[in-house]
Amino acid sequence: MTPQITTLADRPELTGALDEMPDTWPRFVLEDLVGWANFPRIAVEFPEYVLVATDQEGTVVARGYSVPFALDAPGRGGLPAGGWDQELLWAFSDLRHGRTPDTAGAVEITVARDHLGRGVSGRMVEAMRENARALGHRELVAPVRPSAKHLRPALPMAEYVRLTRAEDGLPEDPWLRVHVRAGGVVDSVAPVSMTVSGTLEQWRDWTGLPFDTEGPVEVPGALVPVHCSLTHGHAVYVEPNVWVRHRL
Fold this sequence. Notes:
Acyl_CoA_acyltransferase; globular; single chain; 248 residues; 9-stranded mixed sheet; N-acetyltransferase; 7 helices; alpha+beta
């Protein structure tokens, strides 16, 4: 099955179905405050940067969000350590101040659970590259969340990104491999790409774990351990991502 991929600007009637599409995001990731405040605005402010894939029955099977921002602006220039959070803040700051964007930044590509493993993610990456090019950008950058990193939470991301397959030299991580096959180049680690903080009670609700020990706690779906402080009654998760550059 080859899905039909369009932009939300072309298919605004799919807005509700896009939001309702089942996904596999860990619950705690949705508590990142930068994302919580800004992600819903993408479909409203930048619908031409939102991709929606439908099957032959018209069911939404994948979605892709990106945002425009000015990377070559005073005080910027390089891909930020703040990764996912920072590109959202830049995009909406630039919109507010009328800055002309020069870069498209990937925010999310998600495939519906029952369509995983069918090559849809690779087609979405290609479509996002093509859409960014059509919108006049020379580069698409992506703060990639490696899909298998959660299996090795104690391994530093800088070491994880260097893991490659012996047979072809491609990244060991499946999601990084999709980006590289599409023409992307691994650039750097964004060590503070996303931050989720909450009380111990909140973390217990989000994860079902007791959070009753001081120090690092490994949480299913987390790329690195969550730092738990019994003394202060809170826990903080700082997620690293991997910057991938797609020259267009």
